[in-house]
Amino acid sequence: MGSLEQSVHSTGHHGPATGITRWLYTTNHKDIGTLYLFFSLTMFFIGGCMALTIRAELFQPGLQLVRPEFFNQMTTSHGLIMVFGAVMPAFVGLANWLIPMMIGAPDMALPRMNNWSFWILPFAFTMMLSTLLMEGGGPNFGWTFYAPLSTTYAPPSVTFFIFAVHMMGISSIMGAINVIATILNMRAPGMKLMDMPLFVWTWLITAFLLIAVMPVLAGVVTMMLMDIHFGTSFFDAAGGGDPVLFQHVFWFFGHPEVYIMILPAFGVVSEIIPTFARKRLFGYTSMVYATASIAILSFIVWAHHMFAVGMPLAGELFFMFTTMLIAVPTGVKVFNWVATMYRGSMTFETPMLFALAFVVLFTIGGFSGLMLAIAPADFQYHDTYFVVAHFHYVLVPGSIFALMAATYFWLPKWTGHMYNESMAKLHFWLSFIGVNITFFPMHFLGLAGMPRRIPDYALQFADFNMVATFGAFLFGFSQLVFVYNIISCIRSGRQATDRVWEGSHGLEWTLPSPPPYHSFTEPPVFTHPYKENDRGV
Amino acid sequence: MNQLQQRNRSLLIKLLAGTVLMFGFGFLLVPLYDVFCDVTGLNGKLQNTGALTQEYKVDSKRQIRVQFLAVNNESMPWRLRPEQAEISVHPGQMTQTAFLAFNPTERNMVAQAIPSVAPSEAAPYLHKVNCFCFEQQPLAAGEKRAMPLVFMVDDQLPGYISTITLSYTLFDITPESSPVSGIAVAPARSVL
């Protein structure tokens, strides 16, 4: 990569452009990472407001605040915004900021495409959110948009929803291509694949998952579009189609999608725990193989979302056993994190607190997932609040906590300032308590038979719903502390050192805090952090 | 830089090809799904076989109960019911029956019946020689008609199956149909 000298010559002496064009035209991985992160934070709050609308309506039985039609639009939009607008772009933002700095690359491999893949997103989500104001309302068929609810019985705005999903898909695919090209082609000389930080590994595997399944999502919404407007009958039994086919194709995308949302979180936690345990990560190789096995298994388990649809016994058993098989590599990961902490010199800064909460609460979500995987038992849990509790436990204290941990962990590196530690700890404890008060009672509600996606419920569910709503408001409003802390950290704060944390390891910590606009224009000499210094100190 | 750009470009092309391939695979899942259902006989989907090409011998020692069901898809206002709810047949014996359809609305409508068989293992063994479900069925406003069904149960039907249920779901496929259609006469139960 000696030819990089050219770019040093031409880019070494100018910083970012000024004004709005800096952000519109930027091809800089740090700028685009920042844009992604702020975009997803905005979406997190929009989706959060929808969640609080849902919880406020469910505070008491009966219909108080919103009409059932609007309630359905809230549950649907909340799911879509959080999945496609908050969690996925946030991880792409982290990838943009961190992957080039972690592998010693000057930027992402395809910077112009990087700009494009971000700037599609605001338009996609403006289009999707605008449907809420249209005649007939926005999408109201659940985030899984099963046909025929989303075709024959859909509101007229469904076409906008379809195009919005197309645009999100294009954005994700371009982001994934960029990540793969960066990781495979731009690593610092001497860095082998098995030397890469685990965050980079998990993102490499996630990017392949994205390329494999986002086109299938595009395909399924295209089929919907054709059924609605061009007279085809993919999902219409009257024309020889099959609505169950929709569920199969959707979940063929949908199950890898849930790992797309959690694998980078595994990567984040695998960076943070060794730092604050002041030990190298236990079982690096097994972590890589576990991530890859989870990704491969995700393609053959999709029908466990459809146990109640009427499958033959052989099918139920196949999907039940393959689903349970996923617990093995996931268990390897959890045990590795625990083993990393074993006899470590642990300290409990905020990133570590979030990472620890991740390990504990994600494991709870994993166990309720195992319960749902048992086909005969699933008939009781299917489409109840138990499912809601399960996937919120893996997504909120799973993905979202990992994102918060990552924010606190790398914020001093990004901004050059330390955040306010006591305010961050307050944010952690409020979030931790809020999340559990919100979602733990939902297990009981589901086991007692409360269906999901309903605006009103039977009286016996009243107490737990009231508790959950209190928790939701506590969790929701405590995120304002998070935002305040981030903004004040960007503006001012104690100067952060280059290494920031005592136990930090990896190439990004060799850069100054904040890193220069163009970093690693000369490829660094890579020496394995663990091999050089076992304790990473 | 050129060498790196070259490598990035070739990787980009490969990954884009992968994307296009997976988009195609999404559509390929549709025929694959049908093939899978055909091969395994899942889903109770029937072959619309038509005229039989081979001779079947009547197995007069076996009795098979064939039950008929008719269901309307949502918003379909027609009345449809089988002439006989249940028939006892021998395998290999050609049997004719009919479904009675009535269009109670004040407009001409077209319907399509979609058959389904339970247990699904029996689906390949139920041969329909003639069926109203082979074609779209128009009925004028207020019209009543008996729609024929000629079928035969294959003599290869597995021994453990003694009852077959043939169910039809009726779909409204009238062009430009609106779900709100006036009912001309309130049909008494006895009309059908």
UniProtKB/TrEMBL annotation, chain A:
Q: Which CDD domains match?
A: Cyt_c_Oxidase_I
Q: Output the Gene Ontology cellular-component terms.
A: plasma membrane; respiratory chain complex IV
Q: Which InterPro entries match?
A: Cyt_c_oxase-like_su1_dom, Cyt_c_oxase-like_su1_sf, Cyt_C_Oxase_1, Cyt_c_Oxase_su1_BS, Cyt_c_oxase_su1_dom, Cyt_c_oxidase_su1_bac
UniProt xrefs under Pfam families: COX1
Q: Which SUPFAM superfamilies match?
A: Cytochrome c oxidase subunit I-like
Q: Where is the signal peptide?
A: none
Location in or out of the cell: Cell membrane; Membrane
Where is this chain primarily localised?
Answer: membrane
Q: Which GO terms describe its molecular function?
A: cytochrome-c oxidase activity; heme binding; metal ion binding
List membrane-spanning regions.
35-56, 76-98, 118-138, 158-186, 198-225, 245-269, 281-305, 317-339, 351-375, 387-411, 423-444, 464-487
EC numbers on record = 7.1.1.9
At the top of the EC hierarchy, this enzyme's class is: translocase
Function statement: Cytochrome c oxidase is the component of the respiratory chain that catalyzes the reduction of oxygen to water. Subunits 1-3 form the functional core of the enzyme complex. CO I is the catalytic subunit of the enzyme. Electrons originating in cytochrome c are transferred via the copper A center of subunit 2 and heme A of subunit 1 to the bimetallic center formed by heme A3 and copper B.
What name does the UniProt record give this protein? Answer: Cytochrome c oxidase subunit 1
Origin species, per record, is Amphritea atlantica
From TrEMBL, chain B:
> Where, per UniProt, does this protein localize?
Cell inner membrane
Keywords attached to this Swiss-Prot or TrEMBL record, sorted alphabetically, are: Copper, Membrane, Signal-anchor, Transmembrane, Transmembrane helix
One Gene Ontology term of the molecular function aspect:
copper ion binding
Residues that span the membrane, as ranges:
12-33
The organism's superkingdom is given as Bacteria
Record's keyword annotation contains Isomerase: no
**Gene3D superfamilies per record:** Ctag/Cox11 (2.60.370.10)
Hydrolase recorded as keyword: no
User: One cellular component GO annotation, for this chain's record?
Assistant: plasma membrane
Q: Which membrane topology term applies here?
A: Single-pass type II membrane protein
Return the Pfam families for the record: CtaG_Cox11
**Family, per entry:** Belongs to the COX11/CtaG family.
Function description: Exerts its effect at some terminal stage of cytochrome c oxidase synthesis, probably by being involved in the insertion of the copper B into subunit I.
Q: What is this protein called?
A: Cytochrome c oxidase assembly protein CtaG
Q: Which organism is it from?
A: Amphritea atlantica
